[in-house]
Design a protein that fits this description.
mainly alpha
């Protein structure tokens, strides 16, 4: 990849100057656009992973509550983790795309 970039940068442009300046400017613009997109996408990806983790914890809590005897106080917390209202709220939050 670097060899190809070096070849492109060393090519002369139409006005007789080295084409490196135009290519560097285009690459810099592309890099800045990529950084802007990454800054816009990062919160969405973070929220998506948090929702997926919450669902996974809910499924794990359901499994633990169903198959492993636990203390009553722990059972109450596990019931909340896989309750229908919590799952509905998370689903609405995900659908809203906030």
């Amino acid at each position: 990849m670097n060899e190809l970039l070096n070849i492109i940068v060393s090519l002369p442009s139409l006005d007789g100057q080295a084409g490196g300046t135009a290519v560097r400017a285009a690459l810099e613009k592309q890099r800045k656009n990529r950084e802007i997109r990454l800054q816009e996408i990062t919160p969405r990806v973070t929220i998506s992973w948090a929702l997926a983790l919450t669902c996974a914890v809910g499924h794990l809590a359901h499994f633990v509550h169903a198959h492993i005897p636990v203390a009553p106080s722990v059972g109450a917390v596990l019931n909340i983790a896989h309750s229908a209202p919590l799952n509905a709220a998370l689903s609405l939050y995900a659908l809203a795309g906030i």
